[in-house]
Design brief:
The protein is mostly helical and about 120 residues long. The protein is built from three helices and two strands. Helices cover about 40% and strands about 5% of the residues. Helix 2 runs antiparallel to helix 3.
């Protein structure tokens, strides 16, 4: 039984070139996906990122709101002055909730899946 294989190399090469183009465009798409995550999942009114070279963006996540707490005792202006406490760096709880980390991972995986999808 003879076995014959035909490969249309031009179509295959075109698919690889298209995939390479989509992967090279990821660095332009990454900041938009990251900003969408901050806006939609983290509910940030003013999302902010620091872009770095290549596929790298960063943002600052604070353990609490940066707004002064006016209703709390000692918070805001005119509150009682507290004695200086020794601040312990790091806590037991993560600053970013695990659900938000999962949502970010899902967004990044979907972005990569779209870029390397075989068409």
């Amino acid at each position: 039984m003879p076995f014959e294989v035909k490969v249309e190399s031009e179509k295959l090469l075109q698919q690889f070139e298209d995939m390479q183009k989509r992967v090279s465009e990821l660095d332009q798409k990454l900041p938009d996906v990251f900003l969408d995550w901050q806006r939609e999942d983290m509910n940030r009114k003013f999302p902010k990122i620091d872009e770095q070279a290549g596929l790298s963006v960063t943002t600052l996540v604070y353990p609490r709101s940066r707004k002064p707490r006016i209703n709390a005792p000692g918070g805001g202006k005119g509150g009682r002055r507290k004695q200086a406490r020794r601040r312990v760096s790091g806590g037991r709880r993560p600053i970013l909730r695990p659900e938000l980390v999962e949502q970010l991972f899902d967004r990044m995986k979907e972005m990569c899946r779209e870029a390397i999808e075989w068409q």
